[in-house]
Amino acid sequence: MPPSEVQQAQQSPQDPGPATMRRSLGVKDGVAIAASSTAATTSIGIGMGTLAAYAGRQTPALLLLAFLPILGIALSYARLNRTEPNCGSGYTWVGRSIGPWPGFLTGWVVLVGNVIFMAYTGAVTGSVVLQFLNKLGVHSVLGLRMDPSSTGISTAVGLVALVAVTVTAITGVRSATRMQLGLLIFEYVVLLGFCGYALVVGDQPFSLSWLNPFEIGSPQALAQGMVIAVFIYWGWDAAFSVNEETRSASDAARGGLIALVAMLGLFILGAFAFQRVMNTDELIRNGPQALTFLGTRLAPEPWASLPLAALMCSAFASLQSSVIPTARGALAMARDRTLGPVWQRVHPRYGSPAVGTLLIMAFAALLAVLAVGVPKLSDMILTAVNSIGLTVALYYGLTALACAVRFRSSLRAGPGSALRDVVVPAASALALFGLGGYLIWDYATMSDHFEASPDNGWFMLLLPALFVLAGLAVAAWAKWVRHAPYFRTGRGTDADAITLPMDGAGARLPDPSEG
Q1: End-to-end CA distance of the chain
Q2: Are 76 and 428 in contact (CB under 8 A)?
Q3: Residues contacting residue 44 through CB under 8 Å, at least 6 positions apart
Q4: pTM summary value
Q5: Distance CA 67, CA 264 (A)
Q6: What does 134-189 look like in DSSP terms, one character per residue?
Q7: pLDDT tens, residue by residue, 142-199
Q8: How confident is the model over 58-105, as pLDDT tens digits?
Q9: What are φ and ψ of residue 490, in 5° steps?
Q10: CA distances (Å), 273 to each of 51, 301, 378, in order?
Q11: How many CB atoms lie within 10 A of CB 500?
């Protein structure tokens, strides 16, 4: 089907497609979405103990080291976004620059990774709610023990939270970002206050060795810790998923970069604060409840519950901000017919991909229920983080490589352009590909049998392998059954070619990115 016919089909009266996506978001909205998706409070609250299990007291060094390739990836996103703003981001850019198969795989692993993230974050949210109930003296309901470390009980409560954030995501990004800004302000005030106080009153001696990555125990620990650290930074690219609803491409880029730099500062502050108050054994032992433990060590009640409240706000916000980019990424793939048409149905009133958002929530809920078979919440989190971390490294690396390939002519434009457009993206991509390749080899050789456990290498390798194989199967269906034009050209639908909504007088609303 010619491109003109594809666009006509996508804008039919029965399926308005993204034509009704409203350009109303600015830089602060992009920052809110990216910061909420990265979920600094949640990452600090449940991630520092996990990192400490691999890096020990060198967790701050690991966070700094992981930031370097991530910054290169972020600069690649910004460069590509200036040329081709599109809510499909990596899916569109990789498809056009490298090829449709790796491009589709990029979009697919983002989609699957976000669904898994929502599934386990829902359980984390439920666990935080249960911790609140325990603090209020509610330890059982109808004979059922309200155990925050139980995957089953935490998941049941988390499903209610998942439904609530899906409703707010459907009613529009603008209303969702207003709520996220409020949640962010509260949680960051609490986080900065408690972490700052911990730096002053903590009894664990500070050491410059905390900033030395060469003191991490082994190459395996360094590689595993790096993947988890990359995962902790994951989410800043959510700002690029609302391009059709952002007033200009530069707003999306600035929002993502500002959020990423802010996350670096918060993560380093959190790592220092935790290590000033807790020794390594305490960090590992408390795991997902480390932030709650920090609050009880630093303040009496009711002030000790404030970090727990901030963690709950962060968990809710990250759930919501994960629904938003996932549904919009699926929309970009559906309008290229690499996914079914159901994913591009836009709500006539709210201008959001409502059906896709509901489907994302349903898949996440189903996966969360299936994960109940992992009895300990901390084991479930570690399994999910390891699996998502490898796929995140894959799609970040592919996107940076796409930047280097697309702008390779900059090698002749001078050292400044070559460094920005080719060298930094290529180096970042190679760093993540090398990290992923080393871990794949490590997982494949660390175990001699299969077991559904986060310390079994075959199990940890099986999950991301299934994601990729499933993606290749869906891509094959799109190419040979749906005959998606994307697989002939590698080009996604141009967002700027889609008619924007009309104002009250029937005139096309101006696109701020035009002139």
Answers
A1: 32
A2: yes
A3: 191, 266, 267, 270, 271, 274, 291
A4: 0.83
A5: 7
A6: HHTT--EETTEE--TTBHHHHHHHHHHHHHHHHHHHHT-HHHHHHHHHHHHHHHHH
A7: 888 888 878 888 899 999 989 888 887 787 556 666 666 777 889 889 999 999 999 9
A8: 999 999 999 999 999 999 999 998 888 876 788 889 999 999 999 999
A9: 75, 5
A10: 14, 20, 22
A11: 17
Residue with tokens 């559906």: 334
Asked if residue 375 has a cis previous peptide bond (ω within 30° of 0), the answer is: no
- Return the structure tokens found at 492: 């996604």
- Show the 3-state SS of 390-417: HHHHHHHHHHHHHHHHHCHHHHHCCHHH
The structure tokens listed for 132 are 């609140």
- Taking the C-alpha atoms of residue 465 and residue 427, their distance in angstroms, rounded to an integer, is 25
How many Cβ atoms from other residues are within 10 Å of residue 183's Cβ? 23
Q: Spell 312-346 as b/e; 16+ CB within 10 A means b.
A: bbbbbbbbbbbbbbbbbbbbbbbbbbbbebebbbb
Higher pLDDT among residues 138 and 499, named by residue? 138
Cα distance between residue 118 and residue 374, in whole Å: 16
- Residue 60 near residue 268 (C-beta atoms within 8 A): yes
* 211-226 pLDDT per residue, tens: 999 999 898 899 999 9
Tokens of 360: 């994302």
**What's the Cα-to-Cα distance from 137 to each of 38, 123, 132, 134, 146, rounded to whole Å?**
32, 21, 9, 5, 10
d(CA 311, CA 291): 8
Q: How many CB atoms lie within 10 A of CB 453?
A: 15
